[in-house]
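Complex 271.
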Amino acid sequence: MDIVAMKRRGERIAALTAYDYTSAQMIDAAGVPFILIGDTLGMVVQGQDTTLPVTLDQIIYHSQMVARGSQRALLVGDMPFMSYQVSVEDALRNSARLLTEGKVGAVKIEGGASIAPTIERLVNVGIPVCGHLGFTPQSVHAMGGPRIQGKEPSAAASLVADAKALEAAGAFAIVLELVPATVAQEISRRVSIPTIGIGAGPHCDGEVQVFHDLFGLYSDLKPRHTRRYLKVAEDIASATRQFIRDVSEGTFPGAEQTSDLGAEAKERFRA
Ligand code: KIV
Ligand code: NA
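Predicted structure with 3-methyl-2-oxobutanoic acid bound:
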């Protein structure tokens, strides 16, 4: 899937996270062109409060499962917290592991102009990089929570400058998370690479959503930026109650789920 060409052709890009073989298979077969193995897995799969504890080995493990389920989509693996910030060497070695062991086609790195030199080195050795600006969850403690970024004119201007820096460094796309729609629109106009929004309004070149949000795999919280296409958590809960009833009432397993001896063999066996 050539994501950059999609922007050139004016095609909007739908992106979704996946963390395992089963979910990757379903969304890949349905035709999503961009699958992100996001460090959101720390929250939606592991049940942690932030993405910070997710390790490179875990992203690699989940990427391998997604790769087995995916035929067509571009797979993008998140570089976890502290896997690329300490040194360019770390970033090179760790991204290479994600590509070679995790079988992704690209990595995603959070940050603006200050991380651009690292991105440039990765791109120069042949590692495609997706940027990530706005609310960057690995900086949740510094940002004081999941807040919209770039509301002040000066902050908006520096987001635009960050996007230009990522483009100049060779990033092939930029995720814009929790950014005012007008700022996201301006960035999308000012860079030639696709912007992929989440909580960034309708003017980005694409939209990325978290699998568990979009399909309702939990019933408690719903971020404002998502739309629930399914209520899987509720369906699983009621199906589970039905299964418990069926087992306790003895209606499951039934004849369809059962194999048995033939009449004659049954006679002989019982005799
Ligand atoms: O980890 C993730 O799922 C992400 C998306 C929300 C963009 O970074
Ligand atoms: Na992420």
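The chain has two domains: 3-230, 239-270.
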